[in-house]
Write a structure and sequence with these properties.
single chain; Spore Coat Polysaccharide Biosynthesis Protein SpsA, Chain A; ten-stranded mixed sheet; two-stranded antiparallel ribbon; 34% helix
Length: 337
């Protein structure tokens, strides 16, 4: 039987995600539009993930890394190895609705200017609560996940456009991603999907939003990180700003950074916060070099790629939880699973 439309590859970065793999791969097998290939990029798992794939899913292509190389590296290796024109990135702790691939591919088919599609992600443990309905990058360096922590009342049931897609469950045009250099592997994990979304926007691409549903456990492997995921989020925010933000926005960035530092002080983790900021310093040289290239090659101005939005104050609902600024430091899609 002839498969309609472009070929679709699914890439699953995995780090000790053996407990999630049966349900993740099971929902892929139940898709109304099945993937043409499934690739699992294993980041040095020691929980039997590779053995499980070999014994239970021999048709799944496993790319084994010797160590935990991070989400960005694993995603790039999977995208490079993929044969499909379209590539779906799926975290191991994600369960897809049966029509997810079909709807996401259809969204790209009718939107030739879109390089990616974001979906409607719900919490796996609380299915009535939104996890992400597309990402929004603000001029203070904060990244919001639309709808995060809100009840699923239908507000995000209409297709449209968003800034970027959470790479925990998203569909990409392979050539577009490779054309802008793929994910920035220096990020290791967290905010690499926001960085990619920005570079795609600057290159003239858009991101579609399709309310195809999936359920995400969230932080499926980040608990295994020494020190947790907050240091990576903090460091990578600095890299993102250094790579692309104009000097005239630095006042907004400084305001947000002071706010995050204040919350770190209240939460008795200011030392770890400062160390995370310092960890960005050795990488700034490359970020500034990339800044010059991005500026010279941009098709869309940065002011159009990141339009002006209100900069909210108040309590944070970000990497430490709590408050009303939602998940503004961009956790989703950046996990290591």
């Amino acid at each position: 039987m002839t498969v309609p439309g472009p070929g679709i590859s699914v890439v699953i970065p995995n780090w000790n995600g053996r407990r999630w793999l049966p349900e993740c791969l099971g929902c892929l097998a139940a898709q109304t539009r099945c993937a043409d290939e499934v690739i699992v990029v294993d980041n040095g798992s020691d929980d039997g993930s590779l053995e499980y794939l070999r014994d239970q899913h021999p048709r799944v292509r496993a790319l084994a890394q010797r160590r935990n190389t991070g989400f960005a590296f694993a995603a790039n290796r999977g995208i490079e190895a993929a044969s499909g024109e379209l590539v779906a990135l799926i975290n191991t702790d994600v369960v897809l609705s049966p029509d997810w691939l079909a709807r996401m591919a259809a969204a790209l088919r009718v939107r030739p200017a879109a390089a990616s599609v974001a979906c409607k992600m719900l919490s796996l443990s609380e299915p009535g609560v939104l996890y992400d309905a597309g990402d929004i990058l603000r001029r203070d360096g904060a990244c919001e996940q639309r709808g995060r922590f809100m009840p699923d009342g239908g507000a995000y049931d209409v297709p449209g456009d968003v800034f970027g897609a959470c790479a925990g469950a998203a569909l990409y045009r392979r050539d577009a991603v490779l054309g802008v250099g793929g994910f920035d592997e220096r990020y290791f994990a967290y905010l690499e999907d926001v960085d990619l979304a920005l570079r795609l926007r600057l290159a003239g691409w858009t991101c579609a939003y399709e309310p195809a549903v999936c359920w995400h456990a969230g932080e499926g492997s980040s608990a295994q990180l020494r020190g947790g995921h907050l240091p990576l989020v903090t460091r990578n925010t600095v890299l993102l700003v250094a790579k692309a933000f104009p000097v005239r926005w630095l006042g907004l960035v400084a305001y947000r950074q002071l706010g995050w530092a204040y919350h770190a002080l209240l939460e008795r983790r200011l030392g770890a916060h400062v160390r995370a900021l310092a960890a960005a310093m050795p990488l700034l040289g490359h970020a500034l070099a990339e800044r010059r290239r991005l500026s010279s090659e941009a098709v869309v101005p940065i002011s159009a790629a990141i339009p002006s939005r209100p900069i909210r104050g108040g309590r944070r609902r970000s990497a430490s939880g709590g408050g009303n600024e939602r998940r503004e430091m961009g956790e989703c899609g950046a996990e290591l699973t």
